Known about the structure:
4 copies of one chain form a homotetramer.
Chain A: E1 29-31, E2 34-36, E3 42-46, H1 53-66, E4 70-72, H2 90-103, E5 107-110, H3 117-123, E6 126-129, H4 137-144, E7 150-153, H5 160-172, E8 178-182, H6 200-207, E9 212-214, H7 216-220, H8 223-236, E10 240-244, H9 262-278
Parallel strand pairs in A: 3-4, 3-10, 4-5, 5-6, 6-7, 7-8, 8-9, 9-10
Antiparallel strand pairs in A: 1-2
Amino acid sequence: MGGLNMDNKTEQESYKLVSREYQRQDTQIAIKENIIDSNQFHVIAGPCAVESKEQILETAWAVKEAGATFLRGGAFKPRSSPYSFQGLGEEGLKYLAEAREETGLPVVTEVMDVRDVELVAFYADIIQVGARNMQNFFLLKEISQLGKPVILKRGQCATLKEWLMAAEYLLYGGNPNVILCERGIRTFENYTRNTLDLSAVPALKDLTHLPVFVDPSHGTGKRELVAPMAKAAMAAGADGLIIEVHPNPEKACSDGRQSLNPKDFALLMQDLRRLAQVMAREMVQKE
Amino acid sequence: MGGLNMDNKTEQESYKLVSREYQRQDTQIAIKENIIDSNQFHVIAGPCAVESKEQILETAWAVKEAGATFLRGGAFKPRSSPYSFQGLGEEGLKYLAEAREETGLPVVTEVMDVRDVELVAFYADIIQVGARNMQNFFLLKEISQLGKPVILKRGQCATLKEWLMAAEYLLYGGNPNVILCERGIRTFENYTRNTLDLSAVPALKDLTHLPVFVDPSHGTGKRELVAPMAKAAMAAGADGLIIEVHPNPEKACSDGRQSLNPKDFALLMQDLRRLAQVMAREMVQKE
Amino acid sequence: MGGLNMDNKTEQESYKLVSREYQRQDTQIAIKENIIDSNQFHVIAGPCAVESKEQILETAWAVKEAGATFLRGGAFKPRSSPYSFQGLGEEGLKYLAEAREETGLPVVTEVMDVRDVELVAFYADIIQVGARNMQNFFLLKEISQLGKPVILKRGQCATLKEWLMAAEYLLYGGNPNVILCERGIRTFENYTRNTLDLSAVPALKDLTHLPVFVDPSHGTGKRELVAPMAKAAMAAGADGLIIEVHPNPEKACSDGRQSLNPKDFALLMQDLRRLAQVMAREMVQKE
Amino acid sequence: MGGLNMDNKTEQESYKLVSREYQRQDTQIAIKENIIDSNQFHVIAGPCAVESKEQILETAWAVKEAGATFLRGGAFKPRSSPYSFQGLGEEGLKYLAEAREETGLPVVTEVMDVRDVELVAFYADIIQVGARNMQNFFLLKEISQLGKPVILKRGQCATLKEWLMAAEYLLYGGNPNVILCERGIRTFENYTRNTLDLSAVPALKDLTHLPVFVDPSHGTGKRELVAPMAKAAMAAGADGLIIEVHPNPEKACSDGRQSLNPKDFALLMQDLRRLAQVMAREMVQKE
């Protein structure tokens, strides 16, 4: 697979390689001993931003013990205002790699700048494309050259069709290892940070063969809503979750309001394991 | 409870009686032998519109057998265009009462016109206020005079706060038996008819003591998304569901596209019963 | 005209009588010596709510002197919260009639309850249907029985098509004297109270023969944005405006934040008269 | 000006240098003999995409004759689908430069990739940052290093505050020559491609000293709505417009549906000149 034999490259506003018609069986993505598909259920956990070596190591051990199979953390964090914390950069990537070395958890981290694609790919096991870059087509083209798995977050005001066309850029460029991640859309409702569109999960399962994850942390922006929405995501048929966990959410450099502490994360993981049995999903526990 | 001892009636833009601060314990609503609260889980099922005596009876028996505990059906159906089917009116109410007589299922039906409140209340066990009337304050005031349980659907572009203020009209007028029902909000995404905002469920559980139901049929507008979103609603903590079931969805006078047939509904009910065990919810099966 | 010879009453989701195809020439509505059409430009002004005889009289004289041709004021004001000011009711209607008696300005006021339609029609020269009632089909049917002109505001999340179908209810019921009024839609942007969709004006001019007004007061919710958006509405091709004016906005019972004082309103009217010359619009000044 | 003396760089979620409090007088941007400010009114016109030397030259002469003072055209056009026309790249930039050479019109063109910033800056008189890149902070940082004027389009679901924070990145990095351009936001209404938020114009005039332009072509997506919304934008207080003009809209490689032909553009320019007199705006006509 991979966009080699396209026969209608000029077709406007469409996708092909990502569609369920093009490939009936679910895409399987192997990352070390983990298989991302519709049998296993994976939880990616960690802080929004890597803040220090101690913080990322402490979090890594905690989420591993609770049952997470991947570690997440942001090294590049340019945010809405130029006066906000902008991330540790390559230093952050190195801390992530150390945490992987120690805990064995593969690492998920975001790339935002085309010039950093090689650098991030060197350290990451899964490259994340954030919501703001879902239609950064130059970045998608660059990433599509790598075989490395990509998690493509939905843009804040992207339709399902636009999202699938963005994924098409990755497959068309040669990279079939794409995971979609619903993370909330912008609506008039401002009680929550975004409106988590869980109906996107079964809709995407009809439209595409790609795995679908959900990020209830960004999707709600409120810690107390993360656990119920994580369970709802699994019940809706999601293949995995991305959850923000911070050893001390009140002191987080960014997004503390939506981060779980390790204890609440561990309780959620217990609930998810019980739910997984009903949903016929396997949740691997690392040793 | 019930709006008798209000001390700040002049306060602008607020709610009081519906809030969790005002009443910590969950509201319990007894309808015949059914208790709507946070222990039991109830499914209200039936067609969008009552079309004939045969149609409503057939549906009533089918949904009862599958495990629904309430029958729904619309008698007054004025819709977006004056040229669409407008409902059977009082004749439809009589058919619903006959179906209740035969099956024992209590009946849920909508009132839209203040002049019909007494008539609908005579036939219905639960009065439904639809999304378009959530802020029809004259209708709310009229219904608040009755003790009869009310299911108040969320307006298509209502914030949680506006919804709670609308519920406040009912409690303030003297009717504490109010059930809230999330049914999707209007957003830019048009793959689904509405965007089902499941995060409203745990959010409302924090904000109010009233029971919270979910309508995945209107919330998605697509039959194939109803079952996954029904399960997700239960996992998110909902107290019940409203689901459109029609003996022959392709021939329905309205909303056939989002109705389940009796067989698919029965399969969904099986899944819900298994999920209920994990969620510590009781689902009563009528004999 | 008037819905007498409909040949496809069963057609779903459509409108006919309001369409430009059905009637090419613009609808003209005569109210006393005023003609609402695409030649004249009318400004309806007054407070959100009638608060007292003095308040409405003072406002009526002030807006007349500035050049308004209609007086507006709300008598029934049930609002989001039951604890907010709910209006003076029939007393308010009487004060409006007195103000008309004294100033000669015809009166625009809202009806919300089907049971009040006759009462409001007795006092009003133009009946207003508010945004929340745009799809209150029983109210529309009742009003359609009267020949009295109606101003139909756009629902907060109504598409142009839904709005036109709501207007169709009025024409189909026999009332051709319908004015549409854009008043802002609900979007993610919360700097303004609503997002005034001025593109609706030229779009409606293509789709329908009905006059189109704009309400920049509700449309923005901010006094300082009213004048620029009023001018923009005229430049976009609107046939008139509804503007909130209060003798003392800081003390208004409702919506003071978006009301102009008489002095600023008079300045705006001067600007509009100059703009009207460029736009080939006639603005009648009453003596 | 330019971010040199920031005293609270750590402040979260805020802007400073772009605010009206920080600088009361309007920013003036000089580009050759043109001054962009609140006295003059400038129209930037041209095709969505540069398609050939002939096409851009023909358009340049036509829009100049009609009174446009800047020529626009896209050289890099990666779009929603990888199967759509992706632009001519540097060749397109050269054609733009030739058109400037011949007509004297300064050139506006978009940069999307950080690696192209120097290249685009070499050819362009004004660099455009498109809606999808409004929060591409690495691109903003790169552009902020140049003194070259920038036109920063509003993101499709960006609030005014987020937009101003994005502009703050440019000023903070040292580039004060920033023009904001409203181009429509994404809402539930799909009759238009986007909902043009003209209230953003007077709102921004209160909040910031930067010039504000409007793009009614992308803002509506429909040719027939461009002229009324262009006039409305001027009446709302905009400092200029960006309008898509194509010699043969039906054959355009992209966005033909929203492009004016040269004749309709010339008629619009006449209307704008008459309106400019009422709005006390100067429209310079090049020889």
